[in-house]
Amino acid sequence: MSDFNRRTLLGAAAGLIGTGVAQAATAAEDPHAVGSVANGKVDLPPLHGETEAGSPPPNFDPLAKRIGVAVVGLGHLSLEQILPGFGQSKSTRLVALVSGHREKALAVAAQHGVPEKNIYDYASFDRIKDNPDIDYVYVVLPNSMHLEFVTRAARAGKHVLCEKPMATSSAEAEQMIAACRDAKVKLMIAYRMQYEATQRSTISMVRNKEIGDLRMIEAVNGQNDVPDQWRQVKALAGGGSLPDVGIYCYNAFRYLTGEEPIEVTGRLTQPKDDPRFREIEDLAQFTLMFPSGVMGVGTSGYSIHETRTMRVIGSKGWVGLENAFAYNNITQMVSRKIGSVNGIDHRQYPPKNQFATEMDHFADCIRADRVPHTPGEEGLQDMRIMEAIYQAAAGGSPVKMKQAAGLDVTRGPAPVEEKG
After folding, report:
1. Strands 67-72 and 136-139
2. Residue among 82, 114, 154 at smallest CA distance from 358
3. Rounded CA gap, 186 and 170, in Å?
4. Contact (Cβ atoms closer than 8 angstroms) between residue 126 and residue 96
5. pLDDT digits 0-9 by tens, 82-120
6. What letters, b where the CB count within 10 A reaches 16 and e where it falls short, cover 320-351?
7. SS3 326
8. Is 164 a catalytic residue?
9. Which domains does the chain have, with CATH numbers?
10. From the candidates 248, 250, 255, 302, which is the catalytic residue?
11. Which candidate in 136, 138, 158, 164 is catalytic?
């Protein structure tokens, strides 16, 4: 192509671009794209009609105003779920890491923009006291280490979010609560399902009697684990499938009813020819009887194909959850009579990282000086129930529990519904 032709084509292209820019500058702006700003929050009008589902803009807090979090422990849960959750968190930011493996910590810090000066090991952990960037620590360690690091964090003047199960015994849980109370810091247990939209919807339906009077709840939570994990060492885990995944089932029985059990039963299996179960149980089956007469029946396991289901059964309908305790893809089914037939509605709520949701709740509680929805007392009650299940399994008889007066006695205010 000659220089003349090149110049001609380039000039023509530049003219078209210039015309497009001029037209764009003078064209009426689309109000759906512009929206409005008030108090630092952006609002956009909906693009679709009232028949379509949608959600408003997320409106993150300015980075400098977010609550700083130090994550303690860099195993599967932290690397695969919690750290990615900061990308969806509106109110928190990752500012520090604590790990016994510096090479891994350096690599993770580089991936997430954590400065090297904010990397600690377990021996130097107490130096977090001198780091004003850290508002709370998230303890994601083997269960037997929770007591030590919750206590040390409290002593350093930092609020604490601790993974479930809270500890390996109710006595340890009581010490953790006392340590945080004495240090005047907040303690929240990371029951992510109590902040998840599908579970919140199910709680609402049960409490509002949308399926009639609640009569029973059935739940299964299990998976097929590989050998040689710390969860298979009783001294580290406190037990087998019951404290790890069974706790989701009976915690759900409690938050759905709002009640505390008055009687507990339990049965366990411990296969002798499987090295995974030298110290811990495989299957755990348990029942919780509540003052209202509702019965919860749960099963957990470490040798079954991944199964996470729950059915909440009332006098006029039921709510079923598939992937009920999973990190994502939870589906809700609601069965009720419609006209002369039984109908089933399938519902799926907008996806949101469950760890971002719970971390944001704790950040809001710190700012507002409010008790978290799942404080230490919630974790302590689950430890007491777990001990009763083990006692029932060992003795072969039901174990009576102390009756609690009122509903939701171990919980703080319910999480505020997200408005975007």
Report:
1. parallel
2. 82
3. 19
4. no
5. 999 999 999 999 999 999 999 999 999 999 999 999 999
6. bbbbbbbbeebebebbbeeeeeeeeeeeebee
7. coil
8. yes
9. 63-193 (3.40.50.720), 194-349+376-400 (3.30.360.10)
10. 248
11. 164
